[in-house]
Design goal:
Chain A is about 55% helix and about 10% strand. By secondary structure, chain A is an alpha/beta fold. In chain B, the strands form three sheets. In chain B, strands 6-7-8-9-10 form a five-stranded parallel beta sheet. Chain B has a three-stranded mixed beta sheet with strand order 4-3-5. The chains are: A alpha/beta (about 220), B alpha/beta (about 425).
Chain lengths: ~220, ~425
């Protein structure tokens, strides 16, 4: 965004640098006192999140920064969104639809949430269907949401079988050929990928973003 | 305690027991053992092995002992885990109304493992209370939040400052209905928990009579993980790195001190020097090197030194991949610890740490659960060739013990390969 005012640039910098208190105070001042366009403020937030994502990819930022960034975005969004008067038509077109969830038997969600956040700020439309998701729910949600990509998350070793069952059910429902499926979690590797029948695996959010971008033919 | 039976250790069993223990102690002291020791940490896998449900394994003490003993006699590991403490926990958890865990029959299905409930058990604005008076915070805030048996202790009087007749008068608060109920419930629960501990003692003697020394008994936690897992919750803790940095650092330093005191006491009570410390929040992917060196390592190092000086052999299990941490966690006295690695490349760990610590691990969970016996054999050979035979003091184990879903033939393959390639 070359056409930023100094104030706007300041907001982006503070957000990207995890200066939460100053960033929130400034965003609030812009929105509430100065009547800034809420869509513009949210666009600035997205810009800052891009920088956060890049720093994460470069190994400068880690999970704490992603978690804090997500919360800063949410807090500013809480103020900005009710102020939006016109329909938000200026939303950029999404790269693809991604359905994501933690497979049945497993309650872990931190990795899945981070992947959801990273895909979202990288331009994907992500539907997160939660944890301990039954096989049939994945099939039903694929029918409803019609994603291009599916992410199966799991941390426990029992998730290997749950992932395998989920992918088999997607295949049995005749939906497999239209989808790319990735699996992710602390214990997955290529052996697990092969066992479950997934197309690819990843052990962190950067892997997930790269996989999705490659599949959609976007430069990672 | 009526759970204790009499077992006789034959001279042959004593010889085997001593040899197994010495193998592990040689590794700790960085001396060459007579052969590569093997460890056996199976939790819910024992249900699969014994043909019972996870739930039965947690509640049926005698059945669990029988299955665990059968597994030891089949695989003959040098260093088995305290099965009863790790897995036969159902009655004890139920007795205290433990709230931080779901377990078979209590939140998860009869054939599903434990699931820890990652929540905020301490709010961000409670650091000051906890820092000022940890014991008071435990009694009146933390304990009632995490286990039903402590509910009512909130009504206890504020203890610091009680004196003279004020102290005398405060005693009446112990008769308040909530406090009275908590004390009565605690006494009842203590009997159940004591019975559980009795079964552990019984199992320890039973397998000692067959020649098997326990790998460890007491467990501990790093200061960072204590706060992240059991107090602030994962995301709360991550935000604290920015929002409550100074209080967090003060709390970590304080926790190092009370964790050392508590761990030394529990190691002494169990009469076993090795303390198992599962490590959750050290992995490369979780925080930057600078954050690791600021928030994670200093308090844990302080704890390790305190434990070592107290005669304990710490056995941290570095979960996930900690390759980038190896150079930092090397900074401890040599010959005093066992570092157990989960996904960290063991060859790399040996290169960086081989002259400082014994190593434990780490056949991959995906291989154990989905691979073939031949693949497991090859993975063991790889570790023997590249770590043990090159002078690494390796105690062979699964990455995090035996994964619950592992086919029995893969466990057999692991132990057979250990004998075949390294004695």
């Amino acid at each position: 965004m070359a056409d930023m005012t100094d104030q706007e640039q300041q907001l982006v910098t503070w957000l990207a640098d995890m200066n939460e208190d100053d960033a929130f105070a400034l965003a609030k001042k812009m929105l509430v006192e100065e009547g800034a366009n809420p869509l513009r403020v949210l666009e600035l937030c997205r810009n800052a999140m891009d920088i956060v994502g890049k720093r994460f990819e470069k190994g400068e930022y880690f999970l704490p920064e992603l978690v804090l960034a997500g919360e800063m975005l949410e807090n500013i969004g809480t103020i900005a969104k009710p102020l939006i008067k016109q329909a938000p038509g200026g939303e950029p077109k999404k790269l693809a639809k991604v359905l994501i969830g933690t497979v049945h038997g497993d309650l872990h969600d931190i990795g899945k949430n981070i992947v959801t956040f990273m895909l979202d700020i990288n331009g994907f439309e992500v539907k997160d269907i939660g944890i301990d998701v039954p096989v049939q729910t994945f099939v039903d949600e694929i029918n409803r949401f019609k994603p291009d990509l599916v992410g199966l998350s799991g941390f426990l070793t029992l998730a290997f079988d749950s992932m395998k069952e989920t992918i088999e059910a997607i295949r049995d429902a005749g939906l497999r050929d239209h989808l790319k499926i990735m699996i992710g979690g602390g214990q997955v590797d290529d052996t697990v990928r092969s066992y479950t029948g997934a197309d690819a695996f990843g052990t962190n959010a950067i892997d997930a973003v790269s996989l999705c971008k490659n599949w959609m033919g976007v430069a990672a | 305690m009526n759970t204790l039976q009499t077992y006789v250790q034959t001279p042959d069993a004593k010889t085997a027991y001593d040899a197994r223990w010495q193998r592990v102690m040689d590794c700790v002291a960085l001396k060459q053992p007579d052969r590569m020791p093997t460890a056996f940490m199976a939790t819910f896998w024992l249900a699969k092995y014994g043909g019972i449900s996870y739930r039965q394994l947690m509640y049926d003490y005698e059945k669990t002992k029988e299955i665990a003993e059968r597994a030891l006699l089949e695989f003959e590991p040098d260093s088995p885990a305290p099965t009863m403490l790790a897995i036969a926990t159902g009655n004890a958890l139920e007795a205290i109304g433990y709230k931080q865990l779901q377990w078979p029959g209590h939140g998860t299905r009869d054939d599903q493992p434990y699931q820890y409930l990652d929540r905020e058990y301490m709010k961000a604005d409670e650091y000051d209370d906890f820092l000022f008076d940890p014991t008071g915070f435990y009694l009146q805030k933390y304990l009632p939040r995490v286990a039903a048996v402590f509910e009512g202790l909130e009504e206890l009087p504020y203890l610091p400052g009680l004196h003279y007749f004020r102290l005398v008068a405060a005693v009446r608060l112990f008769a308040k209905p909530g406090v009275r109920a908590a004390l009565e419930n605690l006494m009842k629960a203590a009997e159940t928990v004591d019975a559980w501990a009795g079964h552990h003692a019984d199992f320890t003697r039973r397998i000692a009579a067959k020649g098997f020394p326990m790998s460890y008994v007491a467990t501990a936690v790093s200061p960072y993980d204590l706060l992240a897992d059991y107090f602030r919750g994962a995301t709360g803790m991550m935000k604290d790195l920015y929002r409550n940095k100074d209080k967090l650092l003060a709390m970590l330093d304080k926790a190092a001190t009370f964790l050392v005191r508590q761990t030394l006491a529990s190691s002494k009570a169990f009469g076993h020097p090795i303390v198992f410390i599962p490590i959750h929040w050290a992995p490369d992917a979780f925080m930057s090197d600078a954050q690791f060196k600021t928030f994670w390592w200093p308090s844990f190092r302080k704890m390790l030194i305190g434990l070592i000086e107290g005669g304990v052999i710490p056995m941290p299990l570095w979960e996930a991949d900690c390759t980038k941490r190896l150079a930092t966690i090397r900074d401890i006295p040599p010959g005093k610890c066992i570092y157990w690695f989960e996904r960290t490349d063991m060859v790399k760990a040996f290169e960086v740490l081989g002259d400082v610590v014994a190593l434990r691990g780490n056949i991959s969970p995906s291989l154990m659960t989905t691979g073939t016996p031949a693949q497991v054999d090859a993975a063991v050979k790889h570790l023997v060739d590249n770590v043990f035979n090159k002078g690494g003091k390796l105690i062979l184990d699964g990455a995090f013990g035996i994964p619950d879903e592992t086919p029995v033939e893969n466990v057999r393959a692991m132990f057979t390969a250990a004998r075949k390639y390294a004695g």
